[in-house]
Amino acid sequence: MQLAHHKPTATLLPYINRYYWGKSNTNEDSITMFPLVAGTGVDVYIHFGTSFYVDNQALSTSHILCPRQHANITTSGDIDFIAIRFNHGAFRHFSPINFNELHNSYVTVHDLWKEEGDILIDKLYHTSTIENRIQLLDEFFTLLLLKHQCTNTILDQAMRTIYQNHSTVCISELSQQLNISTRHFERKFKQEFGFNPKNFQVVSRFENTLRKLFFSPNKDQLSLILDSGYYDQSHFIKECKAYTNYSPSEIINLKDNSLHFYFTKTV
Fold first, then answer.
1. How far apart, in whole angstroms, are the C-alpha atoms of residue 265 and residue 105?
2. Which single residue of 43, 127, 154, 260 could bond 34 by disulfide (Cβ 3.0 to 4.6 Å)?
3. In whole angstroms, what is the distance from residue 13 CA to residue 11 CA?
4. Which long-range contacts (CB under 8 A, 24 or more apart) does 95-103 make?
């Protein structure tokens, strides 16, 4: 399985984490999608080979992944795709559809962007080089940003602060810094994203802890867990099972045999 990723243009970087792609053939074993954590990120997949399966049902050749609960995602056959990983909460700047409507759905590119989406898919299908595909994506999402960019930046600022300071941030203090009441802040946050700031803080802590465990294999795992704000190891184990349906040891073992943008190389 060949995996790689690339950053978008500077204009899009605050909103899109990366473009990533994978390719394999039928001579390789089927690859399991790495368990997706229920957060506020969105991935858009465009398949040039076999699409993914969710609970043994094939998805469309272009679709989003916006998980809020565990889903059994697998692959088989010829795998050839490019995907767009949006930052937490950033997808709202590229579509008029309310973010809450996308939870646990596999909406197609056509459903999201109609004829514009169809034209993009057609161009990507007829472009063989990754450099040209990246250019097409940069152009497409730059235009969408100009068209749909939200003017309320408070939620963007709040989400970045919580994600980057998940171990120390206090929601009531953050709302004071934003010059809004805590109740109003929590209501607006939930209205936009489907859960409250505290829930997002917990998810952010878990994602960051998981990433540390993956990329710091030689460090003491218990120390990493405690440094991330967990009471003890059992606290983290319980959260890991709740979000991924796996124990920490099981999910770490999945790392080398699963598909996820965490594990790609930069090109």
1. 28
2. 260
3. 6
4. 95/144, 95/148, 96/148, 99/40, 99/192, 99/193, 99/194, 100/192, 100/193, 100/194, 102/42, 102/64, 102/66, 103/66, 103/68, 103/194
- Residue 191's pLDDT is 87
User: What's the rounded Cα separation, in Å, for the pair 264 and 267?
Assistant: 9
Of residues 154, 253, 159, 262, the one with CA closest to residue 207:
262
Q: How many residues does the chain have?
A: 267
Is CATH 2.130.10 what the domain over 2-150 is classified as, yes or no? Answer: no
Q: Which amino acid, one-letter code, is at 241? A: K
Q: Is 171 left (phi over 0), alpha (psi -120 to 50) or beta?
A: alpha
Neighbouring CB atoms inside 10 A of 236's CB total 24
Q: pLDDT, tens digit, for every residue of 4-30?
A: 899 999 999 999 999 999 887 655 555
Q: What is the pLDDT of residues 57-81, one digit of tens each?
A: 889 999 998 877 766 777 777 888 9
Q: For the CA atoms of the chain, what is the radius of gyration? A: 19
C-alpha torsion 133→135→141→142, nearest 10: -170
Torsion angles phi and psi, residue 168, rounded to 5: -120, -20
pTM above 0.85, yes or no: yes
Which residues make up the CATH 2.60.120 domain(s) of the chain? 2-150
